[in-house]
Amino acid sequence: MIKYKLILAIAVFVTGCKTETKKETVIVENSIEEIAPITDSILESAVIYEANIRQYSPEGTFNAFTRDIPQLKELGVKIIWLMPVFPISEVKRKAFGDKMVEDIDDASEREKYLGSYYAVSDFRKINPEFGTIEDFRKLLKTAHENDIYVILDWVPNHTGWDHTWITQHPDFYTKNSEGEITDPLNDDGTPVGWEDVADLNYDNMEMREAMIADMMYWVEEEGIDGFRCDMAGMVPTDFWADAIPKLRSAKDIFMLAEWEDPQLTRNNLFEMAYGWEVHHLLNAIAKEEKGVRDFDNYMNHSVEKWKNGGYLMNFLTNHDENSWAGSVSERMGDASEAMLALVYCMPGMPLIYSGQEYDLDHRLKFFEKDSIPKEKGKVWPVLKKLGELKNTIPALSGAKNQGEYTRLQTSPEDVLAFKREKNSSELIYVANMSTEEREVVLPLQGKYLESISGNEIEINPNNSILLGPWQYRILVKM
Questions:
Q1: Structure pTM?
Q2: How many beta carbons lie within 10 A of that of residue 413, not counting itself?
């Protein structure tokens, strides 16, 4: 939904006549697109998309990504999360392994390495690699015209080594016993391994205020819709308790924490956290290292863990997993599609990472230019159908007012089946989580629509369903 504002500009013109000054009022109509405020009800049916601008296209620009935003709407996307759009530090710029760009003698070789998005040199500027601030504004405008919200990837725990704070406010940073600014450290004082960034000191109240001011700039001046906060749990929770209400006083925003701690979602702080535990569990099930019983145990303790608020982002891949752990097909093989359907059907919000919709089957380079495929193959139509279900079936509500989750008891044990319900809406997910064919009887009675194929199916306790290896079905009550 779009709202329009009219802006009146008054101009004074002095004519060439010596005796007359003529005032003329000029009315300028300037339409400013404002998406409807983000609400919990909108988030219930949302799909979130992580945009890796550098690798999304051969150009690696905002404009190349902006052209495809209407297509993302076809996949049910309601939120675009932009990986960091800020300039990357030149000092201690990461190349590969433990090598920095400055350690490479060959100048042409050095140019290959663009550094980590998460080594920010200025929180208020745009990375020229991606385009200009006008290009960014066009992206945001296009997203809003398509009823899609845009959140920025924010890096609150550290900065690059040539951020202006390094020289102007060295007291903003953590220092060692020699008084030197350090990279991030573990609790025991050993390095985390992020030598390309400098650790911020949250004991410094002035630094906290500067961080909030930089975040507020993007909310108030550029109109973004929220933040995905990198390593949010490495920052004191009392900072978020101060920062988030201030940000929300300016605009309704959506907050995603890269962390899996319910404390961060309490008291109206972050709405959503990362589903890391279930992500690793699904990888293990796909490798047959764990099974359906482990998934049941996870769901049981997850209900208790998150009962006081907050919900999870569920995913098969993201920028970290793809680059360092492997592509979806590499990690999950033949189980990939059943797992994809599962993250849409279980409580929470599903994530699509750049390239996933185009059957990305390789590890994207992290510090160099790379590119995703751009041909629609097997995954696109599946994502389109799953997105339609997520957007339109109330039973799949996944935020603060989730559809009820009920495990359906089945035999054999390696078949997973559950029911989601909300109001009069009912959806069933059933999948064979094994490499062997399985026959299953569901404790259900009635007519259902098999959502992927579009076929009607009659289910009752006297009829069995045959499922091939890693085959799944999504059934909507008619």
A1: 0.93
A2: 13
